Amino acid sequence: QVQLVESGGGLVQAGGSLRLSCAASGGSISGQAMGWFRQAPGKEREYVASINWTGSIRNYAAAVKGRFTASRDNDKNTVYLQMNSLKPEDTAVYYCNTAPPSEDNWGQGTQVTVSS
Fold it and tell me: Which residues, 6 or more positions from 97, have their beta carbon under 8 angstroms from its beta carbon?
């Protein structure tokens, strides 16, 4: 079973940038579409972005389109989320998973906090 570990979160001021990483172990994700999701306090987990197995097709939620970029390195079994022009409403725990997500793959996530 693939295990996914997110990293790269932190505290940043509004307008700043962060790059999240999601490293997979216990199996290869190179042939799978992958997604990024987030959960803000008191809210449901929501979709953020997805990327197909080659990296040639990327889709984004309307709230992040134009600011976030998903990418992947299949040789490193890792996917990334570059987040620019961050806003306080981007504050959440960010998770990666397959796209669509599998309940077995949720990890601990990485906290992103954007201060105003």
Answer: 4, 34, 35, 37, 105, 106
